[in-house]
Design brief:
This protein is mainly beta. It contains no helices and eight strands. The protein is 0% helix and 48% strand. The strands form two sheets. Strands 1-2-3-4 form a four-stranded antiparallel sheet, with no helix packed on it.
Length: 96
């Protein structure tokens, strides 16, 4: 499925049963929004990933082996675990 970016360019996509997880490049992305989201088969956004800090962006994303969660990392040094169905944060930690 081809997905068009919302604001910038797409850095990564991951195909899942519900649609396509999209990670957009953070350079030029609106600060008050999240650059990681799920697009359904109909092209509509199902969820936008919850950020651990409103002033950061996601930089990497990967599916976890359990099939229910995914991991993402931010510019502000957060390692996050998120729910694949909702995009909500399950947990996060800061690292330096």
């Amino acid at each position: 499925m081809s997905v068009a970016p919302l604001y910038t360019t797409i850095d990564k996509t991951i195909q899942v049963n519900a649609g396509t997880i999209v990670l957009e490049n953070s350079h030029g992305f609106p600060r008050n929004e999240t650059n990681l989201y799920l697009v359904g088969q109909d092209g509509k956004i199902i969820w936008r990933a919850e950020k651990p800090d409103p002033n950061t962006f996601f930089t990497r994303v990967k599916l976890n082996e359990d099939g229910d969660t995914f991991s993402a990392y931010t510019l502000n040094s957060h390692a996050c675990e998120l729910d694949l169905r909702t995009g909500k944060l399950i947990s996060f930690t800061s690292f330096r």
